[in-house]
Amino acid sequence: MSLHDAYARTTPVELLFPDAEEAASLSSRIAEEAVGRGTDDGDPDAFLTMGVVTDFVRGIEGAEAPADAIHRYGALVFHAVHFTRAGGPLYLLTTHAARYLVEGSAGDDPSPSSTAGYLQLPQHLFWLQEGSTVPESVDGVFWTVCGDRLHAMLVASVRSDRTGLRVIPLPAAPLGEASAWLDVDARGDGSDFANTMPGAELDALYALETSGEVFKLLARVFAYLRAVPGAAVPGECGPDAGADGAPTPSRLPCTRVILAG
Question: Is-above-0.85 flag for pTM?
Answer without folding.
Answer: yes
